[in-house]
Amino acid sequence: HVQLVESGEGSVQVGGSLRLSCVASGDTIGRYCMGWFRQAPGKEREGVAAIDSDGSTSYADSVKGRFTISRDNARNTLYLQMNSLKTEDTAVYYCATGVWGQGTQVTVS
Question: What DSSP state is assigned to residue 107?
Answer without folding.
Answer: E
